Amino acid sequence: MAGELKDNRGRGEAQWRWPSIHPEGRKFGLIGVALALLVLLWLDWEIIGWPLLGLAIFTFAFFRDPERVVPQGSNLIVSPADGLVSLIVQVPPPPELQGDDENGRGLGVEPVTRVSIFMSVFDVHINRAPVAGTVRRVVYIPGRFLNADLDKASEENERQHLLIEKADGQAIGFTQIAGLVARRIIPFVKPGDLVASGQRIGLIRFGSRVDVYLPAGTDSKVLLGQKVIAGETVLAEIGRQSLIEGVSL
C-alpha cells in the first residue's frame, strides 16, 4: 500500500482535509438527495423533504473513508475497526478458522483472547487489515441480525471470517459481524491477495462488530470500554503479555 512515511520526529506532512466518501455509499446518498429535492421542489412537502435531505447527508457521513496513519512493526496488530472495545474474552477460534487447509495453517482449537469492537452508526465502517500478509481465507456465513453488542452475535449473526498469514507464517484471524441494522458485509479482498497492515479490506453497512483473535501468548493492549481507531490503534504486540489497567472517569 503506497503512502507517505511519517514518524514521531516530525517527518512527513499533515493537514486537515474532508474525508472522502466510499463509492459504496455515494449511490445511497445521491438517491437520498434526489428524493429530498423531488419532495421539496416538486411536491413542496417541506415536513418530509428536509428530514430526507438530513438522512442523505447522514448517509454520506456514514460512508466516510478517512485516511489513517498506520503504525509500522512486524509484531504489531492494529485495530481493524473504529468503535468501542465491548468484549475481551478467552474463547476458542470459530470452526471456520481453526483447522489447516490447502491454503495454509489455521488458528487451532485452543482458547485465545478475542477482542470485540462494536461499531455504532456514528463510527467509520470501513474495515482494515490488522497485519500485513497474504489473505488465506474469506468465509461468509449467513445468519441472524441480533444486536452486535451481544456475545452470541459471534455465533448467530451474519458474519464473514478472514485469515491473514504474515510473512513469518503467523496466522491472524478476525470476523466481520452484521448487527441489528446491517444487512450486507462487503469484502474488498479474496484469498491469495497480499495486503498491507491497515489496508482497507471491506465494510459493513449500518452498525456492526469486528472480532479479532489474538495469537496464543499475546495480551490485548487496549482496555474494555476503550475507543479504538481502525488502522491506527495498536490492539496487541504478538508475544507480549502484561496486565494493563485503566480507570473510567
From TrEMBL:
<keyword id="KW-0865">Zymogen</keyword>
<comment type="similarity">
    <text>Belongs to the phosphatidylserine decarboxylase family. PSD-A subfamily.</text>
</comment>
<feature type="site" description="Cleavage (non-hydrolytic); by autocatalysis">
    <location>
        <begin position="207"/>
        <end position="208"/>
    </location>
</feature>
<feature type="active site" description="Schiff-base intermediate with substrate; via pyruvic acid">
    <location>
        <position position="208"/>
    </location>
</feature>
<keyword id="KW-0456">Lyase</keyword>
<keyword id="KW-1003">Cell membrane</keyword>
<keyword id="KW-1133">Transmembrane helix</keyword>
<comment type="function">
    <text>Catalyzes the formation of phosphatidylethanolamine (PtdEtn) from phosphatidylserine (PtdSer).</text>
</comment>
<keyword id="KW-0472">Membrane</keyword>
<keyword id="KW-0443">Lipid metabolism</keyword>
<dbReference type="InterPro" id="IPR003817">
    <property type="entry name" value="PS_Dcarbxylase"/>
</dbReference>
<keyword id="KW-0444">Lipid biosynthesis</keyword>
<feature type="modified residue" description="Pyruvic acid (Ser); by autocatalysis">
    <location>
        <position position="208"/>
    </location>
</feature>
<dbReference type="GO" id="GO:0004609">
    <property type="term" value="F:phosphatidylserine decarboxylase activity"/>
</dbReference>
<keyword id="KW-0670">Pyruvate</keyword>
<feature type="transmembrane region" description="Helical">
    <location>
        <begin position="25"/>
        <end position="41"/>
    </location>
</feature>
<keyword id="KW-0594">Phospholipid biosynthesis</keyword>
<dbReference type="Pfam" id="PF02666">
    <property type="entry name" value="PS_Dcarbxylase"/>
</dbReference>
<comment type="pathway">
    <text>Phospholipid metabolism; phosphatidylethanolamine biosynthesis; phosphatidylethanolamine from CDP-diacylglycerol: step 2/2.</text>
</comment>
<comment type="subunit">
    <text>Heterodimer of a large membrane-associated beta subunit and a small pyruvoyl-containing alpha subunit.</text>
</comment>
<keyword id="KW-1208">Phospholipid metabolism</keyword>
<keyword id="KW-0210">Decarboxylase</keyword>
<dbReference type="InterPro" id="IPR033175">
    <property type="entry name" value="PSD-A"/>
</dbReference>
<protein>
    <recommendedName>
        <fullName>Phosphatidylserine decarboxylase proenzyme</fullName>
        <ecNumber>4.1.1.65</ecNumber>
    </recommendedName>
</protein>
<keyword id="KW-0812">Transmembrane</keyword>
